[in-house]
Design a protein that fits this description.
about 130 residues, mainly alpha, about 70% helix
């Protein structure tokens, strides 16, 4: 437990290799949560921890890529949505464009005579 914690600290301090250790901690958390529900044999757990943490095996990367990241939305779909959002104009630019069009239309059209409102009630007479 100390080696992964120390390696994570070094990676964060040097701002490098953080993805590998983030994957390790996500997998560790999943297995820790499973241990509460299903007690694991300590020998298997030791083997699993070594397999996950040793760079020679890249076990955390294998588990993360195979199972955890597979649960996320497909990357292609995320890219399509992101591209669509980026190509859409912002709400502020839409409002500014509408105001500009209204101003242009009102200046190009002659002013209409104001007709009396037939739905309005007549004023009250004082008795």
């Amino acid at each position: 437990m100390m080696i992964p914690a120390f390696k994570t600290y070094q990676a964060l301090k040097n701002e490098e290799n953080t993805a590998e250790w983030s994957q390790y901690w996500i997998v560790w958390t999943v297995f820790s949560a499973a241990e509460v529900v299903f007690p694991l044999y300590y020998e298997l757990k030791l083997g699993l921890v070594l397999w996950l943490s040793l760079a020679k095996f890249k076990g955390a990367q294998i588990v993360y890529d195979s199972y955890i990241s597979a649960q996320e939305a497909p990357k292609k779909q995320d890219d399509k949505v992101e591209k669509h959002v980026q190509t859409q104009p912002s709400l502020e630019s839409n409002d500014a464009e509408r105001a500009r069009r209204r101003k242009k239309q009102s200046s190009s059209q002659p002013a209409l005579e104001k007709s009396p409102d037939k739905t309005a009630l007549p004023p009250l007479k004082k008795a």
